[in-house]
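Project outcomes to date are best conveyed with an example. Our students and postdoctoral researchers have been running inverse folding experiments weekly, and each run begins with a structure described purely in tokens. The record below, which covers 449 residues, was selected by the lab manager from last quarter's runs and is presented without edits.
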């Protein structure tokens, strides 16, 4: 057993990169979008012509013949829908026809589409985990409704939900990413305080957005290579929704506290404990933990239990049974841990996902997840690392809707939402046999006493 801690997503990414698969960067994401969803604004080769009131049938025929137009149908108010000769573009024909004496106006035959976009974030259609309508993801057709029902959950949320702080205990996070910068927790006392001074007396000087336990400073972003993982995880929880760019996070009432303890070669027990303690001391409502490794670590287990808030942890990516070969921290029997396996957009359990009928609680979307990546970009990543933040996002929605929920209530509701959303691929594999559901969770949270 290795003693250092590894992240759970990067293992898959690294392994699959060798066979040139899992990660596709923003450039490619753009290409896919252009292919899939560039919908034309009007019917090419057709125009709607409005004739002058004084125009006779003869005048109209003359105009059509002169311009090689073919009438498709009459429309009210002296208008006609016409077909243009092959090779003449709609724009060119329009420019020409407006000069005809008996033509009042010319306009394209516009196309209208159902308003089915759940938000105005252009990549939201890639986020099958939020709303799966069977759309293809990197060439793989999805199974409709294999998702967490995020739009349905959002429609249940109160107008001004409570702000929820989720500690992302991970690598660093690109806090200047345009889709994330509005979702980063700020330590007000330090932000408005004195430089080089520990204003809030928490033992950390100028800890504006969290802390970098790995490098022992307040700089929570080093570079893309070091901090891509935490940036991707954070976007799934908290990317700005309806801001016209990129992706949508699961929760909108959430701020990310950045607690970096993993470097290029992993992180240590000592730093993980300090990160968990920081989360506790500085008001985090939940913690996302897309990492694992090591052996049975009593010191870490104690810190997690002392934190007491929901501690959402990835089940791991070894395609192994955690009941036989435990994966920490997800395998601890601590009451505040929710351990998460991964599901694909087809409804199958991801082939890399760990499982365990007693030690893995729920599943969540984790195959080909589109989210934020450093440098204002976006990337696909796969792993139980990506499934875990879907659950953290749901927990944030629940606490935003019902701030007084206890940790045990949160866990019970999350597990129930999965138990009532069973998938054949998870039967006999994980405790609940199902995938988490945001709609059911928020509904239950609102009803809880
Ligand atoms: Ca759905
Ligand atoms: Ca401080
Ligand atoms: Ca300060
Ligand atoms: Ca966005």
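After processing, the design step wrote out the following sequence:
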């Amino acid at each position: 057993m290795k003693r250092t801690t590894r992240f759970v997503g990067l293992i898959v990414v690294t392994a699959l990169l060798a066979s040139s698969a899992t990660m596709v960067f923003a450039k490619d994401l753009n290409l896919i979008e252009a292919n899939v969803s560039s919908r034309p604004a009007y019917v090419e080769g057709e125009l709607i012509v409005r004739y002058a009131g004084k125009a006779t049938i003869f005048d109209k025929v003359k105009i059509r013949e002169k311009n090689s137009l073919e009438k498709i149908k009459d429309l009210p108010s002296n208008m006609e829908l016409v077909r243009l000769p092959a090779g003449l573009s709609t724009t060119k024909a329009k420019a020409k026809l407006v000069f005809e004496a008996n033509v009042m106006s010319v306009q394209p035959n516009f196309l209208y589409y159902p308003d089915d976009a759940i938000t105005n974030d252009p990549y939201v259609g890639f986020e099958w985990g939020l709303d799966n309508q069977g759309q293809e993801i990197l060439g793989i057709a999805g199974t409709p409704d294999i998702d967490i029902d995020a739009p349905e959950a959002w429609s249940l949320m109160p107008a001004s939900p409570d702000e929820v702080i989720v500690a992302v205990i991970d690598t660093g996070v690109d806090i200047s990413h345009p889709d994330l910068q509005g979702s980063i927790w700020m330590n007000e006392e330090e932000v408005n305080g004195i430089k080089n001074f520990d204003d809030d007396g928490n033992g950390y000087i100028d800890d504006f957005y969290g802390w970098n336990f790995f490098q022992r400073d307040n700089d929570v972003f080093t570079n893309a290579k070091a901090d891509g993982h935490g940036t991707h995880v954070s976007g799934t929880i908290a990317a700005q929704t309806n801001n016209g760019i990129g992706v949508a996070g699961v929760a909108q009432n959430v701020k990310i506290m950045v607690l970096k303890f993993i470097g290029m070669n992993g992180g240590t027990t000592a730093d993980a404990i300090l990160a968990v303690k920081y989360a506790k001391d500085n008001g985090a409502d939940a913690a996302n933990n897309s990492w694992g490794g090591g052996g049975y670590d009593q010191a870490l287990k104690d810190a997690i239990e002392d934190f007491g808030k929901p501690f959402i942890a990835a089940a791991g990516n070894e395609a192994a049974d955690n009941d036989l070969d435990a994966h920490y921290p997800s395998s601890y029997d601590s009451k505040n841990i929710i351990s998460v396996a991964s599901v694909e957009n087809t409804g199958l359990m991801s082939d890399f996902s760990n499982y365990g009928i007693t030690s893995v609680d729920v599943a969540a979307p984790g195959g080909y997840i589109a989210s934020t990546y450093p440098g204002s970009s976006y990337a696909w990543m796969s792993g139980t690392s990506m499934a875990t933040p879907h659950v953290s996002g749901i927990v944030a929605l629940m606490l935003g809707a019902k701030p007084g929920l206890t940790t045990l209530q949160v866990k019970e509701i999350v597990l129930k939402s999965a138990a009532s959303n069973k998938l054949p691929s998870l039967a006999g594999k994980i405790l609940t046999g199902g995938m988490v559901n945001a709609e059911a969770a928020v509904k239950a949270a609102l009803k809880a006493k």
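Residues 42-110 form a domain with the Alpha-Beta Plaits fold (CATH 3.30.70.80). The chain has two domains: 5-36+118-447, 42-110. The training component of this project remains on track.
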